[in-house]
Amino acid sequence: MTDTILELQNLKKYFNVPAGELHAVDGVTVKIRKGETLGVVGESGCGKSTLGRVVLHLLDNTDGKIIYNGEDITKVDRKKLTELRHKQQLIFQDPFSSLNPRMTIYQQLAEPLLIRGEKRGAEMDKKIYDMMDTVGLARRLVNTYPHELDGGRRQRIGIGRALIMDPEFIVCDEPVSALDVSIQAQIINLLLDIQEKKQLTYIFITHDLSVVRFISTNIMVMYLGQMVEYASTEELFNHTYHPYTRALLSAVPIPDVNREVNRIHLQGEVTSPINPKKACRFASRCMYATDKCRNEEPELQEIAPGHVVRCHFPLMD
Q1: Sign, Cα dihedral of 168, 177, 222, 232
Q2: Contact between 87 and 166 (Cβ < 8 Å)
Q3: Secondary-structure percent of the chain, ordered helix, strand, coil, rounded to 5
Q4: How far apart are CA 159 and CA 190, in angstroms?
């Protein structure tokens, strides 16, 4: 039996807009094994969050397949979707707008259980208090409202709300981007501890490569809806072949004022994701682009075992 929990096969999501079709996710193929974390990185607007929402059926896909635990769940009925909701959860980016301002911590954590059909009582109380302990919320805060809490505690509520359904797969949609750096570290450590205890599988969406390096098993780099590079975390940071990935890595802050860093400053216009032509979508900003890049779409190619790149002329070490 395979240990692959999720497989995406040529997954696409297009939106109809007045000018044509916006290619938000365009042909993503990837596998995630149980207990691992796939980090998804890229600039704002590259399709990271849309990918996560399509995987969870919050958005319908345009084409491709979603295979979950060996079962094709691309198109599911309401009954099957309800079953999936118990196994798959989402942690939102904004820990304030994703919470109901009129609900206390107790009510926020109880709501998923009530929707599932559980009854109020001592058993539910125990589940909620145990979950508060798990995510690091003091029990004395059980009747407080979101506006009374700081960002870190609000995000812990969001994490607890996802975990209380006892899922096996969670999409973390930039869960620390709205938090201070010191709080980010606490939340990331919390997610890692919970993952180890419960053997959870994550898709961790972020634009911060220093964060994704710490938490991810494998990393997928996206650019304008496409996967442009994929490898294990160690492999990607040691051997980077796509010009866009190198530019992202060069932007990671280095905590040493005396160390010189060769920053790559991208020039040129960003290609429109609406009706993109058959060409490299990064060509307009790539210093290495040739006529072939501007007129032919590159295919994914395996440069090293498990390391794939979408580039006509990968930057070899």
Answers
A1: negative
A2: no
A3: 35, 25, 40
A4: 9
Q: Is the pLDDT reported for residue 277 higher than 50? A: yes
Model confidence pLDDT, tens digit, residues 32-58 = 999 999 999 998 889 999 999 999 999
pTM over 0.85: yes
- pLDDT higher at 167 or 253: 167
CA angle 261, 264, 267 (to 5 degrees): 155
Sheet holding 4-17, edge to edge: 20-33, 4-17, 63-68, 71-72
Other beta carbons within 10 angstroms of residue 36's beta carbon come to 19
| 169 exposure class (CB count in 10 Å sphere: 0-12, 13-18, 19+) | buried
* CATH (residue range 4-310): 3.40.50.300
Task: Report phi then psi at 235, rounded to 5.
Answer: -65, -45
Which DSSP symbol is given to 297? P
In the chain, where the domains are located: 4-310
CA end-to-end span of the chain? 37
If we measure between CA atoms, which residue out of 62, 69, 161 comes closest to residue 110?
A: 161
Q: What is the pLDDT of residues 63-100, one digit of tens each?
A: 999 999 999 999 999 999 999 988 999 998 888 888 99
Strands 88-91 and 300-304: unpaired
Q: pLDDT higher for 207 or 133?
A: 133
Per-residue pLDDT tens digits for 254-273: 766 666 777 787 888 899 99
Alpha-carbon distance values, 317 to 96, 241, 282, 286, 305 (Å): 44, 8, 20, 18, 16
Smallest CA-to-CA distance from 173 within 309, 55, 272, 68 is with 55
Cα distance between residue 128 and residue 113, in whole Å: 10
* C-beta separation of 233 from 39 below 8 A: yes
